[in-house]
Queue: 3 jobs
Job 1
Amino acid sequence: MPSTEAKLLILLAMMAYAMSAVLNWITGRGKDQTPTRLTMAALAAGIALCLGVVVLRMAHGHMPAVSGFDTFALLALLTGAAAAYLWAVDALGRTGLVLMPVATVWAGLAVVLSGPAYHDFARDTWTVLHVALAAASALALAASAVGGWRYLRKYAQLRSKDPRMFEGAAVSLEQLGRFLRRALPAAFALVTATVITGFFDALQPRLHDFFHNWKTHPKMLAAGITWLIYSIALHAAYARRFRARVAAILSIVGFILLVAVLLASMLIPI
């Protein structure tokens, strides 16, 4: 079980990320899209606190991705770092409006899974590998969801001739579409690896009864649906007769489903 210090740190990180998201939304309404110093300070605090959680857990012998708590704490850390990087290179404008709420959710789920729902996944190598790949998939899909959200927002502004589309960092639809075409293949590959390792993990001898009901198990069904959605999104991003808008919509839907799959994996016994 996580220590009181680890729970407190992840709770403070959740609050810092939430503050960063709120500040980014308030200060960016109709103004320059560059985040303020206070917004970046809140983001930096969230990253530092999540890093403290990971280091503290490792000091007590708990490696990343060996439990639901550790997995979501690591995701909160990596998502915050991804937001800071995208802001630094000015790649996707106000990424905080998407990534900061996502990081807040990761930290919140870590808090939830630190209590009675806490599970240790360090049973065997397959399980740890599967959970680690799921965490990497979540980060890649969060990035593609940011690109999808920005694409849909820019598309709506273009259709309505909204003058705000020329404010702050000017990211074109072509650039956002190119970002989606780069992010989706990596996300799809990670989702595929996650599904494969999860299937093999479920068929281990300790779970021999699972083989008889894997076709109707909620984990397998949700993971299969998520994989199918991202395969369609990947096709839509490259097929000429499809618009990138389809890929953008599916990237967001797929990310929401993946969050549900991750939560189900932590709470539903296999």
Job 2
Amino acid sequence: MHKSHDCPKGRIVQHSLDSKAVANNMLGDPTQRRVDVYIPAGHDGAGLPLLVDVVGFTGGGPHHTNWKNFGENVPERVDRLIAEGKMAPCVIAFPDCFTRLGGNQYINSIAMGNWDDFLTTELLDSVEGHYKCGGTGKRGIFGKSSGGYGAMMHALMHPDIWSAAACHAGDMGFELMFASDFALALRRIAKHGGTIESFIAALEANPKPAGEDIHTLMTLAMSASYDPDPEAFLGINLPVTMDTCEMDKTAWARWMKWDPLTLVETHGEGLKQLKALYIDCGDIDQYNLVYGARRMTKRLTELGVPHIYEEFPDDHSSVDYRMDVSLPILANALAD
């Protein structure tokens, strides 16, 4: 709901994109994808910067355009920020990147689909072609959690495409994040038949999956993203033994190459091309992401990469209010 009911209201247009990039997925996920596009009041989109919202696990971009109780959805938040003179007008795309495994890390995967290609080619071509917005030097990407990971990864991998990025509590520091998740996953898999296939079948048949099962699904989604196995069910093969939870060091190395703290060593220099890079995290983040965020800002500082880093007194949940800080930084930098 709008906090200020008299501020000019932008419009949301719903589009459909038939993706060739994600047609390779092993999950049976549809290629037809909804993309909601926000156009600020008084504009048709032409000449404006473009921001792309990549959301966290269990979410989809259109979730951020839905009505929200006791708060603002993202378009309402942006309406207010623009009306208050804090944020330059911009177009925002909200793509549906949800998968059968509950989420996305926005990288290419033979199991999950080529979501990196989807964002950097199909989505940009479609939205920019239709609204005449964005373009080189005027594109930004933002997200929280898995979306924060996606924003950070795209900034690292594609500084020639994205000129600004905001990472809210993004996944980094994999050894801190996943240390206990594998053991939990094995317990939940054992409870539901002992195989990944039996676990997925039980979860999908359950009208009210347990929270621990959703968390396990997230671990399986990470495996299908970072180390997909074309011979395994849905491409999922955990990097631990199923009976003793012993780490397969070779498989784990394939995960670790996707940790932003690993990639910054080879791609950090490219971040200097960005017009804005914003990173934040709650100081009591329950997934231990604050430690990875601190490591990242330390390394970026050592590399001489301009960025803004903030910690705030909160955990990982319900922190959309932090967009009041990040979105003006991105939009204003891209509008210059």
Job 3
Amino acid sequence: MDRIGIIDLGSNSIRLVIIDIKENGAHHQIENLKESVRLRSGTDAQGFLTKEGINSAVEMVFLFVRFCHARNVTHIIAVATAAVRRAPNRAELIERIAKHTDVTIQVLSSEEEAYLGYVGLVNSVTNTSGLMADLGGGALKMIGFNDRLNQNSITLDFGSVSLMEKYNLQDLATPENLHALEQFLDETFAKISWLPNYPGLIGLGGTFRSL
């Protein structure tokens, strides 16, 4: 039996999942931990990760790796998504994590991120057709599938955190800011011709779970 740990550096949080994989391929999740770090908020106007954001991420990955060792994890997989992918200084974060933990971070492309979400979804639900919407802190990935096969996909360059910041939606949002957000989303989605082909929406990510 293998015990693997998967660390996901997202734009809004860092997550650790530990899974036992048996000899017959069956798997069982034994841990699912999450800590809010908000790497997307820890960037400056040019998109660089700030020193505070890097320090926070390194510390949390270090703690998760130590936890994996305590739980006898045999293999650690670590990936990063939108906030790290877009940061011009992402190499600094990756090098510091490797130095302190001996774990190499794989930065997923937007296509890889969307595909992995799709594979996880179609193998976890009974729906054979629908629209997957994976809303992260810095990106929205959408895949339309039919008979469990990927037919259309797109990654949009905004997420729950970036939209909150762009339209000043912290605390009590004004009607004007909400209207501006809705208008932006309406115009953006109207440009995606295949969206109406998939009336059933399946949401992934912490924002959907909170809703």
